[in-house]
Amino acid sequence: VSKRRLFWSTVLANLASYFLFFLFLSTQTYPSLLWKGNPKFVNRLLGRAALLENIQLQLEQQKDFYRQHGRFSSVINQDFARDLSQQLSRSLRSQVNQFYQFEWLAQVDYVVLKVKPREEGLNSYTAVVLVVKQQSRTIFVEGICQADQPSLEPPMIPKRLKQTVQCAEGSAPAQKWKF
What we know:
alpha+beta, elongated
């Protein structure tokens, strides 16, 4: 290893250390720097992927509940809360819960999850699981729709179109990595 390369790697390591120290110090002095997230940052980088993963896990739990009980649940049970905490890291889960609230609407043959942002500048979502009886078996049709524009109100409930879900006007199928 050349002396020049060793010098620059030491300089970069020191700069990284100073940056982390400054970041730690600034959050101790001004906690709102990190705890009050920028909605655009949350929506683009952290929020969408974690939120959609959270929604998908909740839809899976609803399908499992339906298979066991023949109906959907209007609340998230404690077993699911433990499963969710194992599948999502604590920091991502707390970020999702910090910026969004979840509301279930359970009916006989479908369940809707409305995901509302707690502050302006974030997108809202509506997820649905529909039960389709075909002969002697049950098929689930599901989808997650995202409002086209940031909104405090989630999109209207999507409709079933054959074996897929069609999002209502003003919304589109949600994509994890869409920026």
